[in-house]
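Write out the bound-state structure for flavin mononucleotide.
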Amino acid sequence: MKKDFIDFLAERKSIRKFDTSHRISKREIEEILSLAAKAPSGNNTQPWKVVTVMNKEVQKQLVPLSFNQSQIEDAAAIFIVFGDPLEYDVDHLADYKARNEHLSSEEIEKFKEKMTKFYEMSPIDKGPEALKLDCGLFSMNLLSAIRAYGYDGAPMRGVNFAGIKELLSIPEDWLPILIIPFGKANEPGRPKVRKPVAEFTRFII
Ligand SMILES: Cc1cc2nc3c(=O)[nH]c(=O)nc-3n(C[C@H](O)[C@H](O)[C@H](O)COP(=O)(O)O)c2cc1C
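---
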C-alpha cells in the first residue's frame, strides 16, 4: 500500500494529449470533486469554487483565451479553479459552522471573536495569498483525485483569465487559481526533471 502510494506520487506527470473520443460522466466528475474537497484549508474555510466545462463548443471558445494550447479543446473536461474571498468573511464562516457543526450561539460568538482577532493580527490570511494557498492545496488534491479515477491532466495558468471570466460570466471577485484540462491520457508525458533534495533543503540537526 505504501509502495503503491509512493509510485502514485513519483509517476505523476502533466499530460496534455488526450483521447478525444473518451467521455466522462457528470457523476464521476462529482465524485472526483468530492474527493478533492477533502483537502485542508485554513480554519476549514474551503474557499474554492470550481467551474467544470464539458462542452466542446465552449472548450473551442476557450482555446484562443489559452494561447491556443490544444489540450483545452482535446480534454474530456476542464476544471477551472477559483478562490472566493467571501468564504473568509467572519459572519459567513460562522453561519456555515452553525449549520454544519451544530454549535451553540455562545460557541458561535466565541468563534467570531477568535476569527476577528486572528484576521486583525494577520490580514494576509483573508487575502489573495491565502486564497492561492488554500485553493492550491485543493488543486493538488484535485490533480490526484483525477488520477485516482484513471485520468490525467495538467495544471495551467498560461491563459487569459480575465477573458475566461468574461466569457463564462464568473463573479468579479473570484480569484483565478488554475485551469486543469483532463481526460484519458494519449501520451506518456515529458521526462521528469527535478532539482536534487540537497539543492532545496537546509537541514537543522
Ligand atoms: C502554476 C502552474 C502553471 C502552469 N501552466 C501551464 C501552462 O499554461 N501550460 C502547460 O502546458 N503546462 C503548465 N504547467 C505545467 C508545468 O509546465 C509542469 O508542471 C512542469 O513542467 C513539471 O512537469 P510535470 O508536471 O510533468 O512534473 C503549469 C504548472 C503550474 C504549477
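---
The first strand starts at residue 48 and ends at 53.
The longest helix spans residues 128-148.
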